[in-house]
Design goal:
Length: about 230
């Protein structure tokens, strides 16, 4: 689903690359944690997959497409296959739970009838049934993240990228969010999650990729957050 072939990324004016010679493959339906200290290259890794940047060297394939040679006009279609969730939720202020999720389908031109069917189904999946009409800014952090996950998943993307999705949540709420991401993964969605949350990584025991100064220093099946 995602293949890095010797991918290096230099930002303009940088002496050291943000990512250096990354080689790896993430298969369909995998759940992968991306860990590493601040500045190790995690965000750059995720942004390359979204074609926010191009690799300076090497080749990156996502959902069968070579992102290096992809025309700019095809990038929106690529991004429709990748749901994104962030630490700070990024919901539409002043909109209800329902509107936040429906908007994701409206902007890609889905028919109103389909939207009326899929949005309630997805809100039920994330445990927000009955809260459709609540203003999203009045919800708890955990509920807001559920809205964000519903919005990211409502289009049934092949890949879900989560950048520190539990970073603003307490441990108990974080466990609930991880159960939800696990359920989405079991629905055959490839999940890639950047995190500093060691207890979650240690509990879940999924594949762990560790970056250090832009290099991939660990690729461990059923891994833990840190090596001793
Ligand atoms: N737009 C940019 N322009 C120039 N340098 C950048 C840019 N974005 C990131 N960098 C640099 O690239 C390196 C990797 O940064 P990146 O944001 O990918 O790390 P990170 O692991 O996501 O960090 P964090 O955990 O703090 O989000 C750092 O040295 C950073 O300063």
């Amino acid at each position: 689903m995602i293949t890095f072939e010797d991918v290096t990324k230099f930002y303009p004016g940088q002496e050291r690359p943000a990512l250096r010679n990354i080689n790896l493959e993430i298969g369909k339906g995998e759940f992968v944690f991306l860990v590493g200290q601040s500045g190790s290259g995690k965000s750059t890794f995720l942004r390359l997959i979204l074609r926010e940047y191009r690799a300076t060297k090497g080749t990156l394939y996502v959902a069968g497409k070579n992102l290096g040679t992809m025309n700019q006009w095809k990038v929106p279609a690529l991004r429709r296959q990748i749901g994104t969730v962030f630490q700070d939720f990024r919901l539409l202020p002043g909109k209800t739970v329902y509107e936040n999720v429906a908007f994701a389908l409206q902007v890609i031109g889905r028919p109103a009838k389909e939207i009326r069917k899929i949005v309630p189904e997805t809100l039920e999946l994330v445990g927000l049934e009955g809260k459709e009409d609540r203003p999203s800014d009045e919800l708890s952090g955990g509920e807001q993240q559920r809205v964000a996950i519903a919005r990211a998943f409502v289009n049934r993307p092949k890949i879900l990228i989560a950048d520190e999705p539990t970073g603003n949540l307490d441990p108990e709420t974080s466990v609930g969010i991880m159960k939800l991401l696990d359920r989405i993964n079991k629905a055959d969605t490839t999940v890639l999650m950047a995190t500093h949350d060691s207890s979650i990584v240690d509990q879940m025991r999924r594949r762990v990729l560790e970056l250090r100064s832009g290099e991939l220093v660990r690729d461990q099946a059923k891994g833990v957050y840190g090596t001793a």
